[in-house]
Amino acid sequence: MKIALFGVTTHNLKDIDVEIPWGKITAIVGVSGSGKSSLAHDTLYVEGQLRYLETLSLRMRPWFSGRLIRPQVRWASGLSPTVLVSQKSQTWADATCVSDALETSHHLRFLFTHLGIVRCPECGLEVRASDIADVAAFCAELPLGTRLWVTAPFSRELDEELLRDLLETGFTRVFAGDQEYDLEEPGQQPSGPFSVVVDRVVTREGQQSRLAGSVEQAFRIAGGQVQIRTAEGVTAFSTRPQCTGCGRVFARKTPRLFSRDPETGGGCPSCGGNRLVEGQVCAACGGSGHSDELAAYSVSGVSWPAWQELTVDEALAQCRGVLDAQADPHRLAAASSLIAPIERRLRFLADLDLGGLRLSRPMNTLSHGQTQFVRLSAHLAGELSGVTTILDEPGMGLARDEKTKLKGIFERLIDQKNTVVLVEHDPELIALCDHVIELGPGAGELGGEVLYAGDRAGLAACPESRISPWLMDFSGMPPAVERPAPEAMLRFPEVTVRELTFDEVALPFSRWTVLTGPMACGKSTFLTAVAAAQGRLVAAQRTRNSRAEVATGGGFFPGGVKMLDELSFPRTPHSHVASLCGIWDVLRRWYAQLPLAKARGYDAARFSTTRAGDGRCLRCSGTGEILVDTGGLSQLATVCPLCEGRRYTPQTLEITWRGYSIADVLAHTVREALGLFSHFPEISSRLTLLSEVGLEYLRLGQPSRSLSGGEMQRLALARELVSKQPSCFLLDEPLGGLHPDDVVHLVRLFQRLVDQGHTLITVDHTGWLIPCADLHLRLHRAGDRVSFI
Ligand SMILES: [Zn+2]
Ligand SMILES: [Zn+2]
Ligand SMILES: [Zn+2]
Q1: Measured in angstroms, how far is the CA atom of residue 592 from the centroid of ligand 3?
Q2: C-alpha of residue 125 to centroid of ligand 1, in Å
Q3: pLDDT tens, residue by residue, 707-754
Q4: Domains delineated in the chain
Q5: I need a labelling partner for 609 at 20 to 30 A (CA). Which of 345, 373, 554, 634 fits?
Q6: Are 555 and 509 in contact (CB under 8 A)?
Q7: Distance CA 409, CA 85 (A)
Q8: Residues with CB under 5 A from ligand 2 (ion)
Q9: How far is CA 355 from the centre of its chain?
């Protein structure tokens, strides 16, 4: 059995036929831009989704309409429901904790809604919302012959008016404390709260309807409250969650309550659930961010805030405890179904040796590897079967021992009769695969063909394969550049960040330092917090130059400090290669000064596709595409019929240079444009840089959304090469998702940045960069202390 896709022409794929065996691990490999994600994501995943969605009734379809762009496949068979786990770097909001990312928070909310009990923070009494049936069931449990009073409690004083009302309605007896009073007796009036006796009965068979009537009456008189008094004591019931001791009204128990949102009653009203007030831990909630009411909820004796503070292992033990505590088989069945999704996720993490992780730990304090495992656990703990799981770069940022654990996850998925597809370049992970599909040979127009498809062993014998030489060793990496001793060092004094204390260390200016180390040793923390802060300090002190030199040993960063991650490469809908590499303004100005443009009064804005006006196509707003609703669940991206994909109005396109309109220029690849603009240093210098970093295949008009992370990274770095101001660049795991051939391009780019006087600090998990950099430091963590070796 297999998944078969025939005649695939999505994006740059060249009418290829692909087969993926069921119940096996398949790797899809290829250089950046060769068509991997066009095949794995835009074809296999989307087609799988559509197959599933199209089985839904027509009523459901509008919910999904417009989200998917139908892949271009002539014929497909053997598809199963498809899950995509993307490992693209994701930034977490400060408040997102492990429990949120693992989705156990969500399931815990339901557990607490159904099984949580709340005790009044003031009186310690259990607060419940009850109905007549609850009271009747309680009375039915009492031994036959028990004398009981059904009473309606009042929390106010018995004044003259109320007394008259009660007597007129026929109620003559009240309790205050354990003292019973007869209101018809003169002078027999209690002070303080009291309860009105609605009925007095001795329990026996066949009096349910009388009791129910009395209880209903008591509920009505006392605004939803009733007390059942026996010689043993008083049991209170309320139709609202209200404390029967002090009368405090509680928020209704719904999943929404279990949050830090003050609106729902769950968040601390003092700090608004933010836990901190002006840099101090909130005194009202002790920093938990929960209201006292929410803090008073518990399941199996463990409060809501205490559940949040548990480690994965402790939470697993608690889950067992909840199930053991259920005596009633119906309640046990309900509890099991609530616990199961929580337990599965926790178990998955515990099996990955992350049982010590606290559920409240903020996601942005975890290492790459830990983050990946939490995400994988959330996605894959569903115990699904017969599903195709596509993992996009699962090895990204993982150390060697972590990759071994990844192997365990894949085997588990295969055992459960799933199909696993990896989009991956890591030789260690490719070695785990049964089947390999390699796309290439180049990128863009030069890619989109199948170079190899078959079992892993056959790959080594395939002469066309670009990946197989790298599976043996990395000797093809560019060696480190010979450089003199650095003139200055950047000093990092001892500092404590996120509970880790980093030893003092000095890194060379105008050199490339690579930091490595095992999982959770603080590599990313050092880079994103310590290096960024110290670097900014040094950059800021440049005006007080002499002091900066004392502090840093002589160098500084006039160009500033730049953390280069996904966030520093913004992808706006209209941005394309020409705008990203900085030639777009020059190009538009060039077109605006051509004689015909000047004669017609066109300015550079006329050639903009972002500005509404007479310049761009009115139909497609300058995108060249129209999304057509196919009536089903998908949209089809079609060429705009008005401009035929050329983005501009015919008048704009009449402005030509050497026979090319501006749309024609955007259709050029970088390589072709270099020939056209060889006499324009402003344009050709930038295009040359793109070509040198291996991006000569990109089209100038190619939208940023179609670029891979690796392509965006190289585009951004190439732009920095233009700057002559020495800067400090920080890169956390820059090799994510890169084919070894692409890594070679990137390393050469790093070395050129250093040639120009820039300083580079990169974190690397792969070990590939060690021989290429000027300095290699290994982070070593002992307890909370991190040293550099
Ligand atoms: Zn109370
Ligand atoms: Zn608070
Ligand atoms: Zn158009």
Answers
A1: 21
A2: 6
A3: 777 788 888 888 888 777 888 888 888 886 678 888 888 898 899 889
A4: 2-81+386-472 (3.40.50.300), 98-118+254-351 (1.20.1580.10), 130-238 (3.30.190.20), 473-571+707-789 (3.40.50.300), 574-681+690-703 (1.20.1580.10)
A5: 634
A6: yes
A7: 13
A8: 268, 270-271, 282, 284-285
A9: 21
